[in-house]
Amino acid sequence: MNNPDIPQKAPYPAEVEAGKSYWWCACGKSKTQPFCDGSHKGGPFTPVEFKATKSEKVWFCGCKHSAQKPLCDGSHKKL
Ligand code: FES
Ligand code: FES
């Protein structure tokens, strides 16, 4: 099984806007973390969509090992 790269063992806070979609980088290779920049091409990972239902601050997973992708669930503490 392929493991994603780990850009950081902490979440990325982000202000999201209601009604907008965000594409979270699942492979860990994007240069524009926590979002996909297309660097996953040719690999086993594809980005995960996050649809904002309200405008708020959320914490996107930076370690790429969350069980609740694309958001942080605390799994980074076990890496
Ligand atoms: Fe990582 Fe696209 S660059 S999923
Ligand atoms: Fe990945 Fe918290 S940063 S679970």
Q: Give the N-to-C terminal Cα separation.
A: 17 Å
User: SSE string, helix = H, strand = E?
Assistant: EEEE
* Mean pLDDT across all amino acids: 97
Structural class: mainly beta
Q: Determine the fraction of residues in helical runs and give it as a percent range.
A: under 10%
Poorly predicted residue ranges: none
**Sheet having the most strands:** 2 strands, antiparallel
Strand order of the largest sheet: 1-4
Walk me through what this model shows:
- The structure is a single chain.
- With 79 residues, the chain is mostly beta strands.
- It has one domain (12-79).
- The protein contains no helices and four strands.
- The protein has strands at residues 12-16, 21-24, 48-51, 56-60.
- The strands form two sheets. A two-stranded antiparallel sheet has the order 1-4. Strands 2-3 form a two-stranded antiparallel sheet.
- The radius of gyration is 12 Å and the shape is globular.
- 20% of the residues are buried.
- The structure holds FE2/S2 (inorganic) cluster (FES) (2 copies).
- One FE2/S2 (inorganic) cluster (FES) binds at residues 10-11, 61-63, 65-66, 72-76.
